[in-house]
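Proteins fold reproducibly. Look at a concrete instance:
___
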Amino acid sequence: MMRLISILFLALLAISSIVCTAQKASSIQRISNKSEIITGADQVDKYLPYLKGKRIGLVANQSSVIGRKSSVDSLVSLGVKIVKVFGPEHGFRGNASNGAVVSNETDAKTGIPIISLYGKNQKPSREQLADIDLMVFDIQDVGCRYYTNINTLEYVMEACAENNKELLILDRPNPNAYVIDGPVMTEDKFKSAIGIHYIPMTHGMTIGEFAQYLNGEGYLKEQCRINIIKVANYDHDKPYELPINPSPNLNTQQAVMLFPSLCMFEGTAINEGRGTYMPFTILGAPALKGKYSFSYKPESIPGMSERPNHKDSVCYGLDLRNYEITQLRRSRQINLSWLIELYSAYPDKANFFTPGRANQDISAFDLRIGTDQLRKQIIAGVSEADIRKSWEPGLQKFKAIRMKYLLYP
């Protein structure tokens, strides 16, 4: 009996040692992860009790994940009652091309109705919100005025305010938060589907911060009740690599980081990689043959770009797939030199900037940039330094306003 007791005692000591070791390892892991960025969605313990017992409307797309699993699937498995999912541009599953109208549908996996917020129905209606107790917004943004997720955010906030619904925002880092640059849109005539806010081309805010900005700067007729689950261990200068592609044509981290600079070329004769599997990392046009050795051929790619600029024609230009992104981070600026260079190299300068609205002196490029001044400066040969100098008054004013709404250093 004594021998048996001794054996049991030694076994208990061994188990205790293993448990202590495991606890210590877990503690060390937690300490080592103090600097790890944790999205709002991944902090489930902070908001799950608030969702339980409520009928939830979720604004989401393929970037809405908890860990690596869809937020919709994860929350349903946790017993959350999601009655509707609202999808932005590119759709809930993120497989619609840029600008494509996305129809309402039913999610095959969960049976949950999916309401499109891109096309004619940009804002949830009173009827669509009638059976919802709480709206949740969980979409990855990339920090540009012409990336339409912030438009969707405003429309959702407006609908929530009008129908007395609270909006819970699961915040995510802005991968381009380090740069606040470009001309500030100041005139109504330049407002369009790719620019409805009086901000610079890159605003340097997360979705949560931008929601506070919309509330505070009077974009809504009445303020929306918002509750934000902040990103843990995050500041605006901290690099963040997106775990999921935020849209079909931002399919690499390189594309995400170059997007603010290369999306300027939409509205010009230059193809920016749409129609290839290298979007927003290459630039070119057939007319540049003989001036650049790098070439590629845009084609129709379903779910990415069905009708790319210069479809089925060989384009010549710049290959930026290996461009050192840290140069952008150091400069804290959009790259303007590529635009100046390709305009200078383009033989038919009169047709470099493509026309925009009929019967107006506003090009498609102007609508993207938010002003006609940059186009006129490029045509006039104004230096990059002087162009940037012309942006400064607007940028300084915006930066001072922005400070009021920041959640992170």
Remarks:
- The longest helix spans residues 2-32.
- The chain is about 30% helix and 10% strand.
- The domain at 44-243 is CATH 3.40.50.12170 (Rossmann fold).
